[in-house]
Amino acid sequence: MQTAIQEFLRAARLLPPGLRAEVLGLSENVTEGAEEIRLRTGRAPTLVSYGKELEILPTHKVSASELQLVLEIATRASVHTYADSIRMGFVTAEGGCRVGICGTAVTDSEKIMTLRRLSSLCIRIPREKRGCADEVMKVLKEGGFASTLIISPPGGGKTTLLRELVRLLSDSGTRISLVDERGEVAGTFEGQPCFDVGMRTDVLTGAPKSDGIFLLLRAMAPQLIAFDEITSPNDIEAAETAANCGVSLLATAHAAGVMDLAERGLYRKLLDRRIFKKAVVIENISGKRRYTVEDLA
Amino acid sequence: MKIIGALLLVAASTLLGVGQARKLYYRRSCLEGVLDALRFIDAELKNGSVPIPEIFQELKRLPPSQLSSFFENLNARMARFGEESLSEIWSGCVLSDNTISLSEGQRQELCRVGTYLGRYSETEQSDAIAVCLERLGTELTRSADKAREGAKLFTGLGLTFGLMLAAVLI
After folding, report:
1. Which one, of A208, A195, A194, A241, lies nearest residue A222 by Cα?
2. Cβ A80–B122 below 8 Å, yes or no?
3. Which residues on A lie below 8 Å from B85 (Cβ)?
4. Which of A47, A102, A133, A264 could form a cystine bridge with A164, CB 3.0-4.6 A?
5. What dihedral angle (degrees, nearest 10) is formed by the CA atoms of B112, B114, B120, B126?
6. Which tens digits make up the pLDDT trace of A232-267?
7. How far is the C-alpha of A45 from the C-alpha of A62, rounded, in Å?
8. Are B118 and A68 in contact (CB < 8 Å)?
9. Pairing between strand A98-108 and A90-92?
10. Is B86 an interface residue toward A (CB < 8 Å)?
């Protein structure tokens, strides 16, 4: 398991040498809780820590060529092999660091073909927090594990909790298939997961969730399918099919809570169909995560 | 004795001429090697979306040629990727490698391709390679003509000079 500092260093390796040296000079107090490094052209770099965005290195103004170099480093000088994910606005670098990309969209018949003239990048620092799910797992396992949805606003720690729950369930005997569309959960790099996702976990990286779920149902005979962020009706259709095949589900969704979830059109459908039986709601209270398990069925 | 000396003189002088002629052929074959390597990169990009570092590794593994040392050097310098951009690494190798015999203009042409490698879509990289192939292809034709003419000229000059010198000395 890596420490918060090591995880930060891994993300900092994506920065151009000059900026990296400056960022690595920051005190541990600043970097320890870092969740994201944000770079915007003509602006000082910022660090998102415990939910707050702080300006670091106020004298350093990020240039467009620095953003280009970050993308080059993240893609190992092979932007062409990441064309599909760049089109979707991100690339996943070594260690599961997701780099969100913003710039000028090149479109063809209203479809985004690629992004050019980068204006902002957001480097997310993935966290592996062993033990963070121990208590939640005990509650979820009462009466047998049932399909569970992890809920929190963006940056709330859904992916971290999902990763840890997958590891615990997998190591306790459940055969899991993980659809890791953005490569953030397992941090797969060149076929090898950087994070421990358990001994009985099969990871499918890069596939859209809906297609991935169908593929894994056919190919890997999972007892549980895990995936990050339900974002489209197709994801819900695929999840329902999997549930109808007798497979348990573990997934995440953006919402402040179950009530908030019910107010959103997409997720209301999800609740109505009773695909998930339980929800884990994550609250961020002054940088500390609090997990509450609620029944959905 | 004088005849042996004269023969040695003629042979040495002819060899010098042949040596000069071989340099011209070497330049031509270097250029051919560069064109082959560019075609290989282009094919890998088009057919398999292969990452650039892997393409460089493949080029290193190809049968030995005039470019073997260049690609070994390039792969070794790739360890500095992140500290330097790919374009800087590529240009550094192209400009500093003395084992490949290329003119300044040809080296600049290769450096220009380096600014595209790994930074753009397959099509754009492929287009940049195509432009380079066309320009260096023209250079190759010129270089081949030069090598053919130069080979005859240098060998002839070497032989003539040797014969004249031998005649004068005898």
Report:
1. A241
2. yes
3. 69, 72, 77
4. A133
5. 80
6. 999 999 999 999 999 999 999 999 999 998 888 888
7. 7
8. no
9. antiparallel
10. yes
